[in-house]
Amino acid sequence: MSPVQQPITAELRQWIVEQAQAGVQPEAVLESMKASGWQEEVAIAALEDTLRGFLDDRARANLLPPPVPVPDPLPPEGGMPATLMAGDREVRVLLAMRNPRVIVFGGLLSDAECDEMIDLAGRRLARSETVQTDTGASEVNAARTSDGMFFERGENALCQRIEARIGALVGWPVENGEGLQVLRYRPGAEYKPHYDYFDPAQPGTPTILKRGGQRVGTLVMYLNSPKVGGGTTFPDVQLEVAPVKGHAVFFSYDRAHPSSRTLHGGAPVLEGEKWVATKWLREGVFR
Ligand code: PD2
Ligand code: ZN
């Protein structure tokens, strides 16, 4: 015999919302429901459905854009793996934060891959540098960002290998990734705190979003270890990630909004150079 269907009435939904507003944890609400005769599966479904609606309403009331799916390298069921298989390479998990979602990986790139990336990118930076010296602008301006260049996605065998590895690591289609960006910071250079998503209030944003939608995640890979300085900072949570050759920091943002707490920057390089490769992940296919 199939179990009697228990109806999820408007009154029940109202009661669940009142519990949430009063700060009662969902687990405690579930226990109360079970104690008053609700089947566990029905109670969980009612709770999930009602609370999702409640949170969405609250977000709308705060004028937040709706959340979108984001990549997440860690298993949804929890548990902290010491390593993750990323296609052709085993990667260490060094730190994971929930809100904002920040994960630091060790050994994402080999030393040889870092060196090759710097070599390939450096040739193109050198070209833009000649133009700079022509105009006499040879000094590094600390307020300006580093020198940079973009690879096309899949432009060479190294990019292809790294992109496939990243896709496997974060569980996101390679096609949703922008081409790798390589940045070089010289002493004094920094990247002032910013958000990587495109500001919905900017007039140019709708045009930018035609190519694959919003950015939803960032992976900054360190191609060398600067002598002093150059950490990646997250001022909202007072976190600073040390730039170590081959390591990487991942973070995601399900809303293009400061509530994502993904404000981040590159602290000034005090001694030596800093090289990074950044992979930005879009909601959809980036063409
Ligand atoms: O180089 C960094 O640490 C850094 C900091 C902030 C890189 C980026 N943003 C970026 O590439 O978006
Ligand atoms: Zn950034």
Secondary-structure map with pairings?
Blueprint lengths: L9 H12 L4 H10 L4 H22 L21 E4 L2 E9 L4 E5 L4 H24 L12 E4 L6 H14 L10 E5 L5 E4 L10 H5 L5 E8 L5 E2 L2 E3 L4 E3 L6 E5 L11 E3 L2 E3 L2 E9 L5
Antiparallel strand pairs: 1-2, 2-3, 3-11, 4-5, 5-14, 6-12, 7-11, 7-14, 8-13, 9-10, 9-12
Helix pairs in contact: 1-3, 2-3
The protein binds pyridine-2,4-dicarboxylic acid and zinc ion.
Describe the structure concisely.
The chain has 287 residues and is an alpha+beta fold. The protein is 30% helix and 23% strand. The protein is built from six helices and 14 strands.
Report on this model:
- This protein is of the alpha+beta class.
- The chain folds into 2 domains: 3-61; 83-282, Jelly Rolls (Sandwich), CATH 2.60.120.
- The protein has 6 helices and 14 strands.
- The strands form 3 sheets. Strands 1-2-3-11-7-14-5-4 form an 8-stranded antiparallel β-sheet. The protein has a 4-stranded antiparallel β-sheet with strand order 6-12-9-10, with no helix packed on it.
- Helix 1 (10-21) packs across helix 3.
- It starts with 9 loop residues before the first helix and ends in a 5-residue tail after the last strand.
- The model is unreliable at 127-144 (pLDDT under 50).
- The chain binds pyridine-2,4-dicarboxylic acid (PD2) and zinc ion.
